[in-house]
Amino acid sequence: MAPKDCSLQAVNGRLKATCIPVSVQKRGARLILQATLPPKPASNKRNHHQQQISTGLPDNQQGRRKAEGMAITLGGKLLDGTFKWDDYATARTEKSKQCAEVVKRFEKDYRQRNQLENRTWQENWHKVFKQLPRTSALTADILRNECLSKPENSRTRQQTCQRLQALANFAGIDVDLLQYQGNYGPSKVKERDLPSDELIAQWREQIPNRNWQWVYGMMAAYGIRPHEVFFCEFTDEGLQVLKGKTGPRLVYQAFYPEWVERWNLTTVCRPKVNAEASYEKGNLGRKINTQFRRYKMPFSPYDLRHAWAIRSTVLFRVPETVSAQLLGHTPDVHLKIYQRWIDIARGKQAIKQVMSESNLPAAPLVPIA
Hints:
- This protein is mainly alpha-helical.
- About 50% of the residues lie in helices and about 10% in strands.
- It is built from 14 helices and six strands.
- The strands form two sheets. It has a three-stranded antiparallel sheet.
- Helix 5 (about 140-150) runs antiparallel to helix 6, helix 8 runs parallel beside helix 12 and helix 12 (about 300-315) packs antiparallel against helix 13.
- The N and C termini lie far apart (about 130 Å).
């Protein structure tokens, strides 16, 4: 008896002759099965389409013989409707390549190389990574699509591109995500009107809860970040911020000092909030914002800090480097954020001062006939 012909042409000829809807193909030095198959579990496609299944077999006589048997088995399952992707290794992304597993290894590596609070990880890294499909393989397309899903020239787009680029570099994925980050920066923040000091004082009185009045007053008088209100204490030298976005610092002076006395701010009166747990989860600031929205405040809590920055520099003439230090900024960041507002406020103040003088020149007037 002549030996069975195991060339690819012969193998596929026999499969076609017996109506097996599968072919054996060569890819590199290995063999694959090709057929019209249902979408994989993680696929966005809805209809059956041509797909390939790796056999792991070499392209030799023995491999082709085994591949033919695998094709017959696969064809039988397709014909009798019992095909399931779970039966094939290629249906399941190797766990080590899944987004969630790559992120897990990245976090471990990053924490070993950097001193990192859990809150910092949650706010700056986890909130980006949690948007990735957990069980899908981490690919350049998935990373790119996630970046492009964010609004252009926004802080969210910039942070997403930067964080996912770091993940791609760690995973050895060749993709340039930074080209999509846009031109967001502190100086690009949308212009908005800051509340006047008079409006700030008026709205404090409209807050019905004494504890939240105290939170509001602390932000207005000392310019601290919303979450820092829960991690500060008074000392003989001033207000000591114990921890926060930029670490501990001392705020020597309130502007205005009268607010401290009038609002009795030195008597600590914090709301009952599990600040430590919320801070670690990275949502303490969000809780504060939500609370003040309930009072229908016409500006955000962070605007109290912005107003303090302008007030300290323009009205109280605190040097900008000192104001930056009290706010927990570098001078460079401080100027990028506030220079425009400072210039506008100084201009208004200068004109107001000039126009209040008694010896202003009189306008030439033509007698009315």
